[in-house]
Amino acid sequence: MMKSLGMNALGVVLGGMMSKEYIWNLKDIKKVHKNGLKVFSCFSCGGGSTMGYKLAGFDVIGNNEIDEKINAMYVKNHNPKYNFNCDIRKMVNMDLPDELYNLDILDGSPPCSVFSTAGKREKGWGVEKVFREGQKKQRLDDLFLHFVSLAQRLRPKIVVAENVRGLIFKRAKGYVNEILKAFEKSGYEPQLFLLNSAQMGVPQARERTFFIAKRKDLELPKLNLKFNEKPIKYLEFKDKEHFKPIKKSSQVYRFWLERKVGDTSLADAIMRAGGKPKLFSHMYVHDENVCRTITSSGQFLRFDVPGSLSNRDFITAQTFPQDYDFDGQSVQYVCGMSVPPIMMKKIAEQIYLQIFKEAA
């Protein structure tokens, strides 16, 4: 296991016992030792990556987010010095503060629904339509390249970009090559990583692709990312007091009663009964397994009781702070669209230790 920075701020004493790292509060960030490095976050959503950088000692000085309501929630929780509530395409061309031209890290999670391995993803490529991200008509498949264009303009030392696992599979591989070429053309040396949050102290199995690109002229060290932390079972953090009951009159409840050990979703019971495959999005969460990837939609059903995960379950599985103010937004949606803070914290720690500290 790689060396990790000391994080006493997350070792808060609760009831005489040391808390778990993934259970924390926003106020804990104030206790973290700062490393003096600056980050700007694009496509910030709820600020999952923002909180990860802060937990690792970085100063996140601003953000970009297209969705007005999501942006208001971000501002409420993170109070950024610079806030750009707009399409990133506008940021590429607008006048920007001088401080943004002296960044250590430019971070971003370009909206990724058209590259997910679920559904007919290729049909969304090159098409303008209304997506949940911002509720505006836009293309999503080219946003990554606009993000690289912003990096070319700002010239940060490091660029970190997170996206779905599906980006590196099948036809999307060609798009990955375009991204790599764009980084190279912009003067950056990119590395590509496929990481699973379940191996990084996050109580959730979430595979994500990370592009981490270093400015060529700085000749910074190559990054090595390998995590092998013990997986955390759902039972270890399960909200035992609350869950969202399934209506007994519903079709979902009827098929839930037909569940068997080994089932992964309601679709298993439906197919056993000879029905057409459906309700794959009604997924089971088992006590003795790692929680499945938290998505912005779909149903996460408890296998032991007729109900779905509570908001507290979503918050903890995503390693969001327990006191996060969702400002009326869907907890599942915000968590599903965000980077788990502890996942980004572990990556940011290694960037600091292997690149910035080594280069100092």
Give the gist of this structure.
This protein is of the alpha/beta class and 360 residues long. The chain has helices spanning 48-55, 68-78, 88-91, 143-154, 173-185, 251-256, 266-272, 311-317, 331-337, 341-359; strands at residues 13-14, 17-18, 38-42, 59-64, 82-84, 105-108, 129-130, 137-138, 158-164, 188-196, 207-215, 244-245, 282-285, 299-302, 307-308.
Strand order of the largest sheet: 5-4-3-6-9-11-10
Strand content: 15-25%
Summarize the main sheet: 7 strands, mixed
Tell me the series of helices and strands, N- to C-terminal: EEEHEHEHEEEHEHEEEHHEEEHHH
Number of E-type strands: 15
- Euclidean distance between termini CA atoms: 24 Å
Work out the helicity level.
25-40%
Instruction: From the alpha carbons, calculate the radius of gyration and give it in angstroms.
Output: 21 Å
Class of secondary structure makeup: alpha/beta
Number of helical stretches of at least 4 residues: 10
What's the rounded overall pLDDT mean? 89
* Outline type: globular
Low-pLDDT windows of residues: 6-18, 114-129
